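Job type: complex structure
Entries:
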Amino acid sequence: MDFTDYPSGAPGHVPGAPIRAGIPEHGRIPKYYAVKNQVAALLDELGEGGLLPTERELALRFTVARETVRQALRELLLEGRLRRAGRGTVVAGPKLEQPLALASYTEGVRRQGRRPGRTLVGLDRFPCPPALAPDVGVEPGAPVWHMERVLLADDERVGVESTYVAVARVPHLNTEFPPDSSFYGYLRDSLGIGFGDADERLETVLATPREALLIGTPPALPMLLIHRLSRDTEGRPLERVRSLYRGDRFSFTTHLGSKR
Amino acid sequence: MDFTDYPSGAPGHVPGAPIRAGIPEHGRIPKYYAVKNQVAALLDELGEGGLLPTERELALRFTVARETVRQALRELLLEGRLRRAGRGTVVAGPKLEQPLALASYTEGVRRQGRRPGRTLVGLDRFPCPPALAPDVGVEPGAPVWHMERVLLADDERVGVESTYVAVARVPHLNTEFPPDSSFYGYLRDSLGIGFGDADERLETVLATPREALLIGTPPALPMLLIHRLSRDTEGRPLERVRSLYRGDRFSFTTHLGSKR
């Protein structure tokens, strides 16, 4: 399945690309956007991993101000077309494609031939607030865990995940569970709790300064946020999860209808 | 199902909210972010539709520079917490929640008690490029339609949609189809073509200047982009669709697993 979104700077009419991209109805293209299209075309020539010329060189090449080049590069960085590498800027690879139907981040990353990983940021235990209680299947005030982990793919930080689960369900989370491994794997193998089903809501948000710092992204990078409420195989409430993925590195795939 | 993301400025520990939001590990909160949290708390007091004080008034109230207030308001606008109304800025309502499993935009918007609509931007007919041919089930060079429509909910512009379909499948699209109605409804009722299934990819992108103009959003607003490749009930390729939704107005819901 090829979902390639063609660079909007490519010549002629390309399917799937924004049509007449960047040409407002009154026919005027903002200068930075014209430069963005020119740089996008250059990225295709350079190929993945190729080193971009400096801002100064690009400003000379396109005879525009450095500030104009900077605005164009900023958008290409936010969109994941470029990435910083050491002191330079290189052409980024395609976004990861995570199947939404897969409950497990670990499994999704593996299927793409990448190595999944997780780094523990914090594990807290606190009395369950009333709003959270039905989601984790306890009475208000009963103890719940909050586990926060940075998500990795081949050691690259790609997201941050907050899991809320009742202490009664997972009493030894703080001592037994290796935080760099799959939580669903632990539930299944050590506690005999199977993931049953989940409701999710997906939206785009801006990273908070703290989240940007944790993930190592530019501030105000658009992120994909997934809220999940999951139940075990018996239909009992299991956990509430807030997963934030870098918008420049992740996409999600899904299938509608019964046939495949 | 309550997926409420609590305002990050709310006091205490709220489930689902970014934990210690905005507090980087070194403990320093950027000034604009502190103001953003203060304004977010104010939005809760004002309630949906409430009129926000002016930038000048907010700058005086929080004793910060107007530029600092402007940065905070810019993020709240991009996130859909605020919206422009005439010359003022008001508290926005919650994001629309569109079920991803629903093929039809029309049906999804109706279920939320809003009135769906569409405005035709353009309808072109062109020889099918090789890359598009398998997606619409024709030989390269055969004629295809490209239909571009702005998506409306209660007359509010919320997205823009590009549909590619073979002229051989829908010969009279330009004369028979009312462009403000449901395309799947037309296929079914007038041509006996049923929607079968589809593969989709969802990502976040920035609006191009032209798209921002069409939808009436600030430039560089984060958008949710859905690529769709769909087939009819017989499994034959039907259409390729590129749908762009305002990131500040839309979220998508989905269900994982077999139980509901």
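Summary: DSSP finds eight helices and ten strands in chain A. Chain A touches chain B through 82 residues (CB under 8 Å).
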